Inverse folding.
């Protein structure tokens, strides 16, 4: 199992029956494929849909319906569409139970950076899209990302270095090495990936990790 | 009553160099594609363009064409990453970009159309979004003051319009119904133009008084072909 699949599988365990969920692009969307049996969630697309699925077979597409990535999409029975102001009222107004979002960096206070990479002095790209509103509005924020960058540097930091998307917003961090919870005392190591030791996680993490007793293996 | 249906060129003649325009749609979905394509041919330039999000991923579609054709001097929206030309032009200084969170920009537009001076949002507090903005604390919670946004012209996309300008939307209407209130001149591109009374009043998504011009777009069959081709090309359908 590659890192992305492992993270997606673990993230899917966070879904609870009846949750309204918004999934960011990348790993978060993959999590939809691993929703546990017996758990039904209602997916929200920020462009204005509740209860939908992606379609891939020619002839199943509707040229007036797409998800937030503009992919061909089917609205499921009981689903609905609405304008963008309503969609973000749903997001900002606390009507979304959980969001899973990727990040460039996340820190031990729950701060998250996921919209801005330096493009030129004083210029940032690609932009935040709907992420900042989700971070502020969703009841539970789950952040999925690879633990380290391509050069092996920790993306789980004491303090984010890139422009923030929101402060103290993240509840849970899931990487290919560990599950970590942001608490008032700090970042608590909750689970380690199969075959990964607590020491290995600590060595790969710049943030201060709180370890309370034996750390169980990740539920997948 | 005089019909609001006009030719595409008659409607687009209201867009002049240097104007601020809003264009509905979400990465191209339910965007006024015929009007955008004609604007590219007409070549109006130095536009300030307001949209919720940018082009279909990779560009070359919808509003991406306006940016690729160097007709936009300033872009206001939540994202440019899907439009390589926007990123390049921003980097080299040709394009000015003003970012707002998507939930903020749509509320700024809503405020612009609703006679409000702006809105208060918790989104962006503690981030670069705070720069140059007032903060207000209400019941202990901090909000940013985000001022209203309007345009000279808005181009929206509906499914059907009657000749009085009442619009029926289909599928995901996204920013279209919000932009319909927030510009001095509103052009609605639709697949079908029908007589007053043919759209049930409770299916009207945008009341006709808000729309100045109704134009026929590519129509339903061509729209189906356009998206089928786009999605096959991008390996979304097989």
């Amino acid at each position: 199992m590659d890192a992305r699949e492992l993270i997606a599988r673990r993230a899917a365990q966070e879904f609870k029956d009846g949750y309204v969920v918004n999934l960011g692009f990348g790993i978060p969307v993959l999590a939809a494929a691993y929703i546990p049996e017996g758990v039904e969630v209602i997916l929200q697309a920020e462009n204005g849909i509740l209860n939908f699925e992606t379609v891939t077979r020619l002839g199943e597409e509707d040229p007036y319906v797409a998800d937030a990535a503009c992919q061909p999409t089917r609205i499921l029975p009981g689903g609905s569409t609405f304008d963008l102001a309503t969609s973000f009222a749903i997001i900002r107004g606390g009507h979304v139970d959980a969001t899973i979002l990727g990040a460039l960096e996340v820190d031990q206070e729950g701060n998250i950076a996921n919209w801005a990479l330096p493009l030129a002095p004083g210029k940032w790209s690609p932009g935040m899209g709907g992420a900042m509103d989700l971070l502020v509005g969703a009841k539970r924020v789950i952040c999925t990302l690879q633990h380290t960058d391509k050069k092996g540097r920790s993306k789980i930091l004491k303090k984010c270095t890139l422009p923030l998307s929101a402060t103290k917003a993240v509840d849970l961090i899931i990487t290919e090495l560990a599950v970590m919870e942001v608490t008032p005392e700090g970042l608590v190591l909750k689970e380690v990936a199969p075959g990964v030791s607590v020491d290995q996680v600590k060595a790969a993490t710049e943030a201060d990790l709180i370890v309370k007793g034996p750390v169980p293996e990740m539920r997948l | 009553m005089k019909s609001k249906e006009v030719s595409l060129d008659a409607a687009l003649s209201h867009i002049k160099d240097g104007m601020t325009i809003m264009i509905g749609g979400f990465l191209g979905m339910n965007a006024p594609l015929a009007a955008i394509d004609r604007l590219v041919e007409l070549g109006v330039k130095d536009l300030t363009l307001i949209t919720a999000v940018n082009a279909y991923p990779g560009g070359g579609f919808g509003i991406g064409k306006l940016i690729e054709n160097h007709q936009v001097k300033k872009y206001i929206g939540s994202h440019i990453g899907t439009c390589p030309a926007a990123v390049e032009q921003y980097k080299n200084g040709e394009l000015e970009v003003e970012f707002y969170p998507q939930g903020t920009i749509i509320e700024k537009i809503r405020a612009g159309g609703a006679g409000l001076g702006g809105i208060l949002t918790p989104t962006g507090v503690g981030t670069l979004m705070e720069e140059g903005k007032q903060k207000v604390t209400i019941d202990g919670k901090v909000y940013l003051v985000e001022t209203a946004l309007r345009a000279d012209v808005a181009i929206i996309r509906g499914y059907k319009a009657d000749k009085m300008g009442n619009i029926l939307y289909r599928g995901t209407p996204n920013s279209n119904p919000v932009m319909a209130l927030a510009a001095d001149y509103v052009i609605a591109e639709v697949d079908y133009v029908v007589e007053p009374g043919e759209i049930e009043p409770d299916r009207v998504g945008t009341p006709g008084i808000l729309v100045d011009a109704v134009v026929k777009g590519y129509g339903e069959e061509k729209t189906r072909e356009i998206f089928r081709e786009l999605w096959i090309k991008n390996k979304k359908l097989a």
